[in-house]
Amino acid sequence: MIDIHTHWMISRSELAKRIKGKRCLSSAYKEEILSVFPDSTDPLPALVQRSLAFMNRMGITQSVLLPLDFAGAYNDLMMDVVRAAPRRFWAFGTVDILSKRAVDDLKAFKRLGLIGLKMYPTVGPYNDKIYFKVYQACEQFGLPVLFHTGFSMFKNALSEWTHPLTLDVVAVRYPRLKIIVAHTGYPHFHAAMDIGWRHENIYFDSCSGGIDAMAELVRMNFEHQCMKSISRWGSLKKRLIFGSDVFYPYLGIGPNPAQRFDFEGFFKIQLKTVRKIKQLQLIWKDFTVNNARRVLGLTSA
After folding, report:
1. Can you tell me whether residue 274 is helix, strand or coil?
2. Any long-range contacts for 77-86 (C-beta under 8 Å, 24+ apart)?
3. Cα(132)–Cα(174) distance, rounded to whole angstroms?
4. Which residues of the chain have pLDDT under 50?
5. How would you label 60-95 residue by residue, b for 16+ Cβ within 10 Å and e otherwise?
6. Which of 216, 181, 223 lies closest to 198 in space, CA to CA?
């Protein structure tokens, strides 16, 4: 099983140093982001081994790591993790949208070993022209983009900025850009379904509330009378991908509330839920392995 939506956290003190002066993050965002990061001095090898042990228990062969800084602050540290366990871990990066070096930073992704861009709308909705240079560069460089959509853990986030329909113009304007809609747009699954049916470059991951959204998207293709006749399941089934939203490497260990969350139970509930969706069972290998490999260009562990 491949999990395309996991996160890697670094120490709060290290992150604080790295996001200082980043104009794409408001002071409120910086405060909220730092509040969920731990204070830790554990060595990297121990953190990697703890994470690999979790993956082995859960039956995860490969995890795609996403940074949580939204500003290109610790891409290099993400690659330290990947190098510590090559082909078990892969990593996306982030960039500072307001930086004049944003496109150059993206150009360096493949040299660094980063396989895609994680987007979170810190300066405007995804259809704001301020992002277009980044989308154009990702399309040119063959970098998939995973967009956070729907609900957010950050209270200062604006729901209208993460609505799936903000990706409509992006899919039209950049038809060769691989767009991954994280959480399947939950709770806006009808909007997610709308753009997914119309754009072949739209993909969906199932993490967190995305399971419920994906279940509804699948149900609409098979049960809703007005949709059955125009169902695009043949295409859509190649664009559904498993993700969990697990936060490595702390996984329920440590004094910080964010560290004490039961990610093992969280993962098991998600896996149990998606296994109940009949249509996903019929495409299980594609949903949990093949689609991720094809979309992200992953090789076997």
Report:
1. helix
2. 77/8, 77/10, 77/14, 78/8, 78/114, 79/112, 79/113, 79/114, 80/44, 81/8, 81/44, 81/47, 81/48, 82/113, 83/113, 84/44, 84/45, 84/48, 85/48, 85/52
3. 9
4. 225-230
5. bbbbbbbbbbbbbbbbebbbebbebbeebbbbbbbb
6. 181
107 phi-psi bin (left φ>0, alpha ψ -120 to 50, beta other)? alpha
Q: Which of 234, 189, 246 is nearest to 4 (CA)?
A: 246
CA–CA distance from 3 to each of 46, 49, 103, 252, 265 (Å)? 21, 17, 28, 19, 16
Q: Which CATH architecture has domain 2-296?
A: Alpha-Beta Barrel (3.20)
* 63: amino acid identity, one letter: S
> Around 118, how many Cα atoms within 13 Å sit in the side-chain half-sphere?
26
Distance of CA 144 to the CA centre of its chain: 11
Total-model pTM: 0.93
Pairwise CA distance, residues 116 & 83, whole Å = 16
Q: Are 115 and 90 in contact (CB under 8 A)?
A: yes
Which secondary structure element, helix H or strand E, spans residue 169, and what is its range?
helix 168-173
Other C-beta atoms closer than 10 Å to the C-beta of 239 total 22
Contact between residue 185 and residue 216 where contact means Cβ atoms under 8 Å apart: no
pLDDT digits 0-9 by tens, 90-139:
999 999 999 999 999 999 999 999 999 999 988 899 999 999 999 999 99
The CA distances from residue 187 to 153, 192, 205, 237, in Å, are 14, 9, 14, 20
Both tokens assigned to 49: 């081994």
DSSP E strands in 46-94: the ranges are 62-66, 89-91
